[in-house]
Amino acid sequence: MLVKTYCAAVNGLEVTTVTIEVSMNPGVMYRFTGLGDTAVREGRDRIAAALQQTGYKFPHGDITVNMAPADLRKEGSSFDLPLAIALMAASGSIVCEELERYMIVGELSLDGSLQPVRGALPIAIKARKEQFKGLIVPAQNVREAAVVNNLEVYGMESLQDVMNFLSGRQQFEPLHIDTRREFYEQQAHFDLDFSDVRGQEAAKRALEVAAAGGHNLIMIGSPGSGKSMMAKRLPSILPPLSLAESLETTQIHSIAGKLGRNATLISQRPFRAPHHTISEVALVGGGTNPQPGEISLAHNGVLFADELTEFNKQTLEVLRQPLEDRKITISRAKYSMELPCSFMFVASCNPCPCGYYGDPTHQCVCTPGQRARYMSRISGPLMDRIDIQIEITPVPFKDISKAAPGESSEKIRERVMKARQRQEERFSSLPALQGGAGERIHCNAQMTERMIHQFAEPDEAGIQMLRMAMDRLSLSARAYSRILKVARTIADLEDSEKVQSQHIAEAIGYRNLDRGDWAERGV
User: pLDDT of 77-108, one tens digit each?
Assistant: First the structure.
């Protein structure tokens, strides 16, 4: 007897429907084909134990299992449940007339209960696209998968529940979620607020500009100056996620297994802060079993690199291409996958090994050579890709104690959202292909060179100012483009149609950590 069940294999954000074919004839052999990895092949033992605990026996006979397409590598334990159902149907233990109308995924425990799997959301999207009637998932994945409408999603606790449902012995109701209501209800709450930050008005202005245009930013200052404190509050002033952005972000976290139990859509922009000991693979993704890295987990959000100079230099260099292309292609001997990674890169570091160079209250004990070697851990090409570079000095205690609470994140966010709205209106009429890879432009940081010439050309005074800055600071052509992008954002914050000289002046002020400037100061 030949029986087919349907499940899915996830590779990056790409999901492929997998057909599990089980042929059973008289005999004693068990054959497995279809490029399953060790976890897939070990599923036979988990299925046998789960069936025994459920009151069934593993079927005996000449069994051939094939997972089609046979040339696609299958990894993980999510194939346990559909394979168990196929074996039971092929042996006649259960009879299901609508087996081909359901996609099934789940890992089996030895006691027959179902364990959660990765990628339930993209699998649900694939099931709807392939016009399956329903999707059967472990109960812990049901809310994650149920955000996909026009698809019946059933959350099951055990193998017995699944067999009872498919054979018609027991009725279960699919879970329905009001996705939009839940999504918008969870957006407004932030634990951290900029009102907690006393002083540092220049730094907060730079963060506002960065948030308004989606620009990369680095803060350099001595310990205790508030770099990490301000960076952690950056998500509270960023524009809220759109439903489309949330769906894309949630898919990435689903594949990585980062969603909590009973999670639905991610409603706030991600904030990822990897430790400086992170490896290249953990940062960009990949591995033996390919997984998204930190740059993809930060997609549509913020990647914060605290103590940037402590990161391995080779690890930092892998950021250069993703920062430009906003996607990462990972190619290995056995697979190739492409993941999105459009994020704001925010970094902080000390100005020297002791941390107190330029501090008004502490004496720096580092030599110029030590400072130069320390800062050289950040390469020129990487620094070139950071739009806003600012120095931060600590706020004296007397100023902290007397200062009133700072401006709230809500007020800053209002200005940021108005600037972003102007950018959306400006770019909405442009062809999608101008953004690269068929994507649309949403903020100034994503502008192409053609758009810079179209929307960010300064007046004559601004051009003269730029020419002087290029000569004095030894700026590259990339730095020139980034100054214009930042100036365009500053103009948007001021509701100015044209980029004027004062906007250029402020944007140039955010490049004062470029290599030429540091050399002039003897660092």
Answer: 999 999 999 999 999 999 998 999 999 999 99
Could you say which DSSP state residue 36 is in? B
pLDDT band of residue 438 (cuts 50, 70, 90) is very low
Task: For residues 182-207, give the mean pLDDT.
Answer: 84
Task: Return the bridge partners of 107, or none.
Answer: 115
Q: Output the pLDDT for position 173.
A: 96
E-state strands within 246-287: 271-272, 285-286
Please give the angle made by the CA atoms of 70, 293 and 255, to the nearest 5 degrees.
Answer: 50
CA–CA distance from 129 to each of 99, 150, 166, 177 (Å)? 18, 10, 22, 19
Q: Tokens 């030949």 identify what position?
A: 2
Distance CA 451, CA 462 (A): 18
Is the model's pLDDT at 236 over the cut of 80? yes
Q: What angle do CA 347, 349, 355 make, to 5 degrees?
A: 170
Q: What length does the chain have?
A: 523
| Identity at 64, one-letter amino acid code | T
Alpha helices in 10-66 (DSSP H): 38-54
Residues 198/406, Cβ–Cβ less than 8 Å: yes
Q: Tell me which residue of 267, 249, 251, 260 sits closest to 185, measured CA to CA.
A: 267
Entry pTM: 0.90
Half-sphere exposure of 90 (CA within 13 A, CB side): 26
Q: How confident is the model at residue 517 (pLDDT cuts 50, 70, 90)?
A: very low
Strand partners, 136: 104, 154
Cβ proximity of 455 and 441 under 8 Å: no
Residue type, 159: L
Type of residue at 401: S
148: its two tokens? 């996909």
In this structure, are residues 443 and 456 in contact, taking their beta carbons and an 8 Å threshold?
no
Q: What is the 3-state secondary structure (H, E, C) of 191-248?
A: CCCHHHCCCCHHHHHHHHHHHHHCCCEEEEECCCCCHHHHHHCHHHHCCCCCHHHHHH
Q: Would you place residue 439 in the very low, low, confident or very high pLDDT band (cuts 50, 70, 90)?
A: low
pLDDT value of position 516: 45
Cβ atoms of 80 and 117 closer than 8 Å? no
What is the distance, to the nearest Å, from the Cα of residue 440 to the centroid of all Cα atoms in its chain? 18
Residue 418, exposed/middle/buried by CB under 10 A (0-12, 13-18, 19+)? middle
